[in-house]
Automatic annotation (TrEMBL):
<keyword id="KW-0456">Lyase</keyword>
<dbReference type="InterPro" id="IPR005921">
    <property type="entry name" value="HutH"/>
</dbReference>
<dbReference type="InterPro" id="IPR024083">
    <property type="entry name" value="Fumarase/histidase_N"/>
</dbReference>
<dbReference type="InterPro" id="IPR008948">
    <property type="entry name" value="L-Aspartase-like"/>
</dbReference>
<dbReference type="GO" id="GO:0004397">
    <property type="term" value="F:histidine ammonia-lyase activity"/>
</dbReference>
<dbReference type="Pfam" id="PF00221">
    <property type="entry name" value="Lyase_aromatic"/>
</dbReference>
<dbReference type="InterPro" id="IPR022313">
    <property type="entry name" value="Phe/His_NH3-lyase_AS"/>
</dbReference>
<keyword id="KW-0369">Histidine metabolism</keyword>
<comment type="pathway">
    <text>Amino-acid degradation; L-histidine degradation into L-glutamate; N-formimidoyl-L-glutamate from L-histidine: step 1/3.</text>
</comment>
<dbReference type="InterPro" id="IPR001106">
    <property type="entry name" value="Aromatic_Lyase"/>
</dbReference>
<comment type="similarity">
    <text>Belongs to the PAL/histidase family.</text>
</comment>
<dbReference type="GO" id="GO:0019556">
    <property type="term" value="P:L-histidine catabolic process to glutamate and formamide"/>
</dbReference>
<dbReference type="GO" id="GO:0019557">
    <property type="term" value="P:L-histidine catabolic process to glutamate and formate"/>
</dbReference>
<protein>
    <recommendedName>
        <fullName>Histidine ammonia-lyase</fullName>
        <ecNumber>4.3.1.3</ecNumber>
    </recommendedName>
</protein>
<dbReference type="GO" id="GO:0005737">
    <property type="term" value="C:cytoplasm"/>
</dbReference>
């Protein structure tokens, strides 16, 4: 179990998000956060006791903000807000998404800009530490006024209402899960309902996780590209640093350097370096791998810059300015900056998958694979080899192209036209998760196919790095070339090795960490 994550006034790191979301790290509130929250709460309570209406404290919400709510109805106001906004529908989202969402909402609370009471924030930290995960649904967020429905389902659990998953994954009523953990529901007070649900936390959590996944997958794409260049008797000369330097995109240089390292000491590459080689230049899918993978890297790093800014933000409306003793409405809940890069990353995933599929397809065509059997089949005609594995790749790539259509341009008005432009950032994040999964599968099939081709190049020896990738597959139970066998389980084994990073770890144990 990783060390507990301390949530203070400053931003949580991407590593903190991953530790809590994926590794189940516990969460504690820092002393600075507790002090900041107390100061903000004093401002809220002073405004709540005043005669002047204050949005979110003594008024209705959204298009109903013009109604002033009397003091005796304000506790009900907060409960009604959470209950009515917990209106999600559709499949349950993944546990890691909900945990990331909760941590990031807690991080905003810790800045002292929302006015949430410390005891309410502590209960959210306790839910994370006890592994209690509210049930959040696929649909319900427009990515503006925050991820309202997803966050409301989490707030509902703090009230002891709605379904949750306990640490074992069992679906139980929130009240029962709290009681079993020795915790007690909160009675929400002025502004707390709004402070719990008005943030970009769901889309941001998914962005942080996607960036981590894509960084790993782009290193894996360099590996599978190197295996394809090698297996198709391509050259490594096009990856030379002096060629990259005359087009100085940083990601391109990194990818080319990785390819050069991965192909070092390859007997296959060395076998056709001589003057009798009549190959003038390789196909784009081989030769231009650094340009595509590099552009993807630069895009991911831009997205990481946006994520870093958002992690350092306090997203709520209205926001508490404790030093000035006031609460002010704002538009910081609008998810546009996050939505744009989520859509951008879906484009990246689709294109990296597309070039991977093209490299794979070249292995299977006798006219283009430089002496390998058709479809890498053992007995072509009797056996089909990897023919249909490429069909699977093609189907996934086509799906990724559809997922690359941006969600962020598809605003739809809501709340009686008060909220007349929204980001659709949650939707962009949900489709990006499917895109990351699809890219994982496409690269796994390239890995599987390239490994088979390298075996068929024997007695020529692959590079130490690519040999480690082939060996990892074989040790995982994926056999080498031979008569046709049930291929789906082998694809899923390769997918697991790519997703977990195990194949990348095996290669980096030989050549050192790739950039």
């Amino acid at each position: 179990m990783p060390a507990p994550v301390v949530v203070g006034v400053g931003p949580v790191s991407p590593e903190d998000v991953l530790a809590v979301a994926r590794d189940g790290a516990a969460v504690t509130l820092g002393e600075d956060a507790v002090a900041a929250m107390h100061r903000a709460r004093e401002v809220v309570e002073e405004l709540a006791s005043g005669a002047t209406p204050a949005y979110g404290i003594s008024t209705g919400f959204g298009a109903l903000a013009t109604r002033h709510i009397p003091t005796e109805r304000r506790a009900q106001l907060q409960k009604s807000l959470v209950r009515s906004h917990a209106a999600g529908s559709g499949p349950e989202v993944e546990r890691e998404v909900t945990r990331a969402l909760m941590l990031l909402r807690l991080s905003t609370q810790a800045t002292g800009h929302t006015g949430l009471r410390v005891e309410t924030a502590q209960l959210m930290a306790d839910l994370l530490s006890h592994g209690i995960t509210p049930v959040v649904h696929e649909y319900g967020s427009l990515g503006c006024s925050g991820d309202l429905a997803p966050l409301s389902h989490c707030a509902l659990a703090l009230m002891g209402e709605g379904p949750v998953r306990d640490a074992a994954g069992t679906l139980v009523p929130a009240a029962d899960a709290l009681a079993a953990a020795g915790l007690h529901p909160v009675e929400l007070e002025a502004k707390e309902g709004l402070a719990l649900i008005n943030g970009t936390d769901g889309m941001l959590g998914m962005l942080v996780m996607a960036i981590a996944d894509l960084r790993r997958l782009l290193r894996t794409a360099d590996l599978t590209a190197a295996m394809s260049v090698e297996g198709q008797l391509g050259t490594d000369r096009v990856f030379a640093p002096e060629l990259q330097a005359i087009r100085p995109h940083p990601g391109q240089a990194v990818s080319a350097a990785n390819l050069t390292r991965l192909l070092a000491d390859s007997g296959v590459v060395a076998s056709h370096r001589g003057p009798d080689c009549n190959r003038v230049q390789d196909a784009y899918s081989l030769r231009c791998s650094p340009q595509v993978h590099g552009g993807a890297r630069d895009t991911v790093e831009y997205a990481a810059t946006v994520a870093g800014r958002e992690l350092a933000s306090a997203v709520d409306n209205p926001v508490v300015l404790a030093e000035e003793g006031r609460v002010e409405s704002n538009g910081n809940f609008h998810g546009a900056p996050v939505a744009y890069v989520l859509d951008f990353l879906a484009i990246v995933a689709a294109d990296v998958a597309s070039i991977s599929e093209r490299r794979t397809d070249r292995f299977l065509d006798k006219a283009r694979n430089h002496g390998l059997p058709p479809f890498l089949a053992h007995d072509p005609g009797v056996d089909s080899g990897h023919m249909i594995a490429q069909y699977t790749q093609a189907a996934i790539v086509s799906e990724l192209k559809r997922l690359a259509a941006p969600a962020s341009v598809d605003s739809i008005p809501s709340s009686a036209m008060q909220e007349d432009h929204v980001s659709m950032g949650w939707s962009a994040a949900r489709k990006l998760r499917r895109s990351v999964d699809g890219l994982t599968r496409v690269l796994a099939i390239e890995l599987l196919t390239a490994a088979r081709a390298l075996d068929l190049r024997a007695p020529l020896e692959p590079s130490p790095a690519t040999a480690a990738a082939v060996r990892t597959l074989r040790e995982a139970g994926v056999e080498g070339p031979g008569p046709d066998r049930h291929l789906s389980p082998e694809i899923e084994t390769a997918v697991a090795l790519v997703r977990s990073g195990a194949v990348l770890d095996a290669v980096e144990a030989v050549v050192g960490e790739l950039s």
